[in-house]
Amino acid sequence: MPRFLYAIVISALVLWSLFFYLLFKVPPYSILTIGLFLLVTFLTFGVSSSLLLYKVKSKKLKANVDRRLFFRKLSKWSFYMSFGIVGFAFLKAFSLLTYLTITLFLLLYGALYLIIKNR
């Protein structure tokens, strides 16, 4: 395992422990705790799916590929997926699921896809 992944794995473990702490110990009575939970969920899913994608896709890498740059490219798509999941959870948590907000969120999600794809 490359050395740069050690810090990322440790941060993923810390994020998962914080995620479960917020899920089971902190009651969602205020907007602050709900927002903190959604932020931690976004980071947890993004980092964890980045590690999972790296593990799966790194088997096909050639020897002369920069693994750190490869991980960053995979992280873009992992956090994009995490944004979609947490975005819908945000709309649901604050009772904003209407046809208008879903349409606007999907337009934002599509625009973000085009921005990430062209980078």
Quickly count the helices: 4
Shape: flat
Q: Determine the mean pLDDT.
A: 90
Q: How many DSSP E strands?
A: 0
Termini separation comes to: 27 Å
CA-atom Rg in angstroms: 17 Å
Task: Summarize the topology.
Layout: H1 4-24, H2 31-57, H3 67-93, H4 99-117
Structure description:
The structure is a single chain. With 119 residues, the chain is mostly helical. It has one domain (4-117). It is built from four helices and no strands. The protein has helices spanning 4-24, 31-57, 67-93, 99-117. The mean pLDDT is 90.
How would you sum up this structure in a few lines?
The chain crosses the membrane at residues 5-24, 30-54, 74-91, 97-116. The chain has one domain (4-117).
Keywords:
mainly alpha
